[in-house]
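Exercise 3.2. Students should predict the tertiary structure of the chain below and write it as structure tokens, then compare their answer with the key that follows.

Predict this chain's 3D structure.
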Amino acid sequence: MSKLLIVGTVAFDAIETPFGKTDKILGGAATYIGLSASNFSVPMAIVSVVGDDFPKNDIQMLKDRNINISSLEIVQGGKTFFWSGRYHNDMNSRDTLETQLNVLENFTPVVPQDFKNAEVVMLGNLHPLVQLSVINQMEVRPKLIVLDTMNFWMDVALDDLKKTIAEVDVITINDEEARQLSGEYSLVKAARVIAKMGPKYVVIKKGEHGAFLFHKEQVFFAPALPLEEVFDPTGAGDTFAGGFTGYLANVNDFSFESMKKAIIHGSNLASFCVEKFGTERMQELTKTEINQRLRQFKELTQFEIELA
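Answer key:
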């Protein structure tokens, strides 16, 4: 088993979907990643920042999930990062209504001393130089560094993003972002271009249509589990990342075969995340439910065929 270090936002979200709307609720990339990864019982820590308006019961909830929050900085007099968005009817596109960086604007992550030797590092979506500063704080080169990013950084900090990508083992982005970063429409070509930037593995997420894993000439595809209703897709990609890295940290095996299983675990957990607003579903999730749905994934993808 490996230690897992998670860097990202702990935040407030206000979400509107065709199914309803919320006031401020718990969100943030590191929150979703941590809650998802906690299902694998690995030693892990979150590096993030909040204001003193952040609820004590949410901090306690993270502790109760055995997430080390010694490097969750609480800025006295500061306000927690806030994002508000509205999803369209197809739930694959959304409009950002408001973004308040607040304490995140001057955030300088500090890796806790006992996680500077973490074997697995999950860099949630942040400015690429902030992500790079975390890598530079590690005393030993981690066995696996996973980077999540988005098209915003491709628009405003592309050179910095490329510097950080060159230092990681795995990059996880969606299909639109992969096309923008690579300049290629074909996802196979896009993955090849991105791999030349540094990462050994390229994970391209396609939302409700599953996820691709590329490594050299090898390709693996995991479908998303068909769901009757998608209530709120916020955090699904981060939940996927948490399941992906949580599984890998648990098995301490970073081969292509292990990555394939990690993709399934990530997709499985993401399928729960979308069933309720925010982190609500992830907070109540049980091991029995996880295993039951894993069996559904197996039935969805398993088949016998005779080759002539």
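Discussion points: The mean pLDDT is 92. The radius of gyration is 18 Å.
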